[in-house]
Amino acid sequence: MSALYLHAMFGLGGGLGAVLRHWIALRVNHDLPLATLIVNVLGSLLLGLWIGYLGGPVELGEEERRLVFGFCGGFTTFSSFAYQSLELRRERTIALAAGNILLSLGLCWLALWLGLVLTR
Amino acid sequence: MTQTRPAVRTTAIMFIAVFVGGAAGSLLREVFSAQIPGAPVLTATFGINVVACFVLGWLYAVRNRVHAHVLHLGAVGFCGGLSTFSSFVAELERMAETHLWSAISAASLEVAVGLAAAILGEAIGRRLDGQRSTE
User: Fold this and answer.
1) Cβ–Cβ contact A5 with B under 8 A
2) Alpha carbon of B8: minimum distance to chain A alpha carbons (Å)
3) Which of A85, B10, B125, B135 is paired with A102 by a 20 to 30 Å CA distance?
4) How many structural domains are present in chain B?
5) Cβ within 8 Å of residue B15, ≥6 positions away
6) Alpha helices, H only, chain A
């Protein structure tokens, strides 16, 4: 299997993840950045499940591994999370910005941990 | 029917732009992650996330001057694909298994540097944009 093909699978996963993230962002129309929080929590849960699953006795091709890893990375976003936190600080209150940061970190961490525990 | 067609086309272009940007950003991250050695706290993901915050800040500074599809390609797709929250927390989780406080410090540092990068990118974008409009 060529390295190029594996990179392409990762890129494909990332592109699909980005499309789904944007689709969710368009549907979750809220004045707080809930969409980003939702995708980051779901993506972290999926990555936890995937890492845990791959840690077990599975026979899976490298392309499937890459596809899902790519998807998790493309689906979740750190840059929008950071920028929206800045906007909350600017347009709303610093408490909301801090809340967004703590909630994102806490829930995503919990989601990843949950994924790892469920598949362990 | 004929009236909905331009809207359908715009939506299609929007999602294609997000897909292309997301795929390119993800690919770039994958390639760079393999190339950058990375230290225990200053991981490749850390550096790449910070770069994505900088680029996103820059793009948002000029958001009113560029076409919406440029933002779909660059901001939503590319910066979103380049940066990752899932690998970020996965690295923190791995760190927390042995050193909880290192993980908490690394998380605080990455968020602080990411915010600073977005502010810096935005400031530079605004300044350059301001220069261009007064020329």
Assistant:
1) no
2) 14
3) B125
4) 1
5) A19, A22, A23
6) 3-27, 34-55, 62-75, 79-91, 94-119
* Site of tokens 């689709």: A23
The tokens of B11 are what? 């939506």
Cβ contact B86–A112 (<8 Å):
yes
pLDDT for the residue numbered A68: 95
Residue type, A38: I
Residue spans per domain, chain A: 3-119
Sign of the Cα torsion B73, B75, B79, B80 reads negative
Structural tokens at position A27: 């549907």
The dihedral over CA atoms of B101, B102, B108, B112, expressed in degrees to the nearest 10, equals 150
pLDDT digits (tens, 9 = 90+) for B4-21: 677 888 999 999 999 999
pLDDT at B100 over 70: yes
Cβ-contact B120, B54 below 8 angstroms: yes
Encoded amino acid at B108, one letter: S
Look at the pTM and tell me if it is higher than 0.90: yes
Cα end-to-end distance, chain A, whole Å: 29
Domain boundaries, position B41: 4-134
CB atoms within 10 A of CB B98: 8
- ipTM of the assembly? 0.92
Minimum Cα–Cα distance from A84: chain B residue: B115
B133 confidence band (pLDDT: 50, 70, 90): low
Give the span between the Cα atoms of A53 and A57, in whole angstroms.
Answer: 8
**Structure confidence by residue, pLDDT tens digits, B67-79:** 999 999 999 999 9
